[in-house]
């Protein structure tokens, strides 16, 4: 009984969402002004500056992995020894990219 109730509720929600989406799409098709508004929103989003923009993810990953190696060597060892050759190559490439980014940041400062 509970399973049927949950399934019925789920199907009702999907139907409602589908109807809402159709209504939004029909409304968007009727008005060209909405397209201009959407373009303005995209331009605003592109101009947004986040504090995370200054953080290089490869450098952050390298720092995290190095910290793990220093703080918990057995876990680091277990994590890195179980990698496939392809994963090991990818890890080395990411570390090299992090080092290159660090050098670039060092010369940019």
Automatic annotation (TrEMBL):
Compositional bias annotation for Acidic residues: 31-47
Region (Disordered) location: 22-51
Name of the protein this chain belongs to: Uncharacterized protein
Organism field: Rhizoctonia solani
């Amino acid at each position: 009984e509970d399973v049927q109730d949950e399934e019925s509720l789920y199907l009702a929600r999907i139907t409602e969402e589908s109807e809402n989406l159709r209504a939004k799409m029909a409304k968007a098709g009727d008005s060209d002004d909405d397209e201009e508004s959407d373009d303005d929103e995209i331009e605003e989003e592109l101009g947004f500056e986040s504090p995370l923009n200054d953080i290089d993810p490869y450098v952050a990953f390298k720092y995290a992995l190095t910290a793990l190696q220093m703080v918990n060597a057995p876990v680091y060892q277990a994590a890195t020894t179980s990698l496939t050759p392809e994963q090991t190559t990818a890890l080395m490439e990411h570390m090299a990219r992090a080092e290159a980014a660090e050098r670039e940041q060092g010369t940019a400062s």
